[in-house]
Amino acid sequence: MVQLELLQLLLEGLINPKIAGKIRMEAPAGLVEIEYNQGENKVDWVKFTNVKSYLAAENLSIDCSELGALTFDVAYGGNYYAIVDP
């Protein structure tokens, strides 16, 4: 899926890489580096290097009036995400 979308952007000239096969994209979460190999009418492969991700906190809890006590972890991957295991 990503290969088709990238190919469409390249073929329509919406992305014009300075170096063929490499794109550096600033996203709200940070720098994303993309490497790809483009054939005639297809992108053969795509490799993404995203921002570092890590577990920021674990076994946190909060009391929710509608759901009761919730225990969750917090992970970072460009933004912070609460992970709840129901």
Question: Can you describe this structure?
Answer:
- The mean pLDDT is 87.
- It is elongated, with a radius of gyration of 19 Å.
- The longest helix has 10 residues, at 2-11.
- It has one helix spanning 2-11; strands at residues 22-27, 30-38, 43-49, 54-64, 68-76, 80-84.
- It contains 1 helix and 6 strands.
- It has 86 residues and is mainly β.
- The strands form 2 sheets. A 3-stranded antiparallel beta sheet has the order 1-2-3, with helices on one face.
- It has 2 domains: 2-49, no CATH class; 54-84, no CATH class.
Q: What layout of secondary structure does this protein have?
A:
Layout: H1 2-11, E1 22-27, E2 30-38, E3 43-49, E4 54-64, E5 68-76, E6 80-84
Antiparallel strand pairs: 1-2, 2-3, 4-5, 5-6
Give a quick precis of the structure:
It is built from 1 helix and 6 strands, in the order αββββββ. The chain has one helix at residues 2-11; strands at 22-27, 30-38, 43-49, 54-64, 68-76, 80-84. The model has no long low-confidence stretch (mean pLDDT 87).
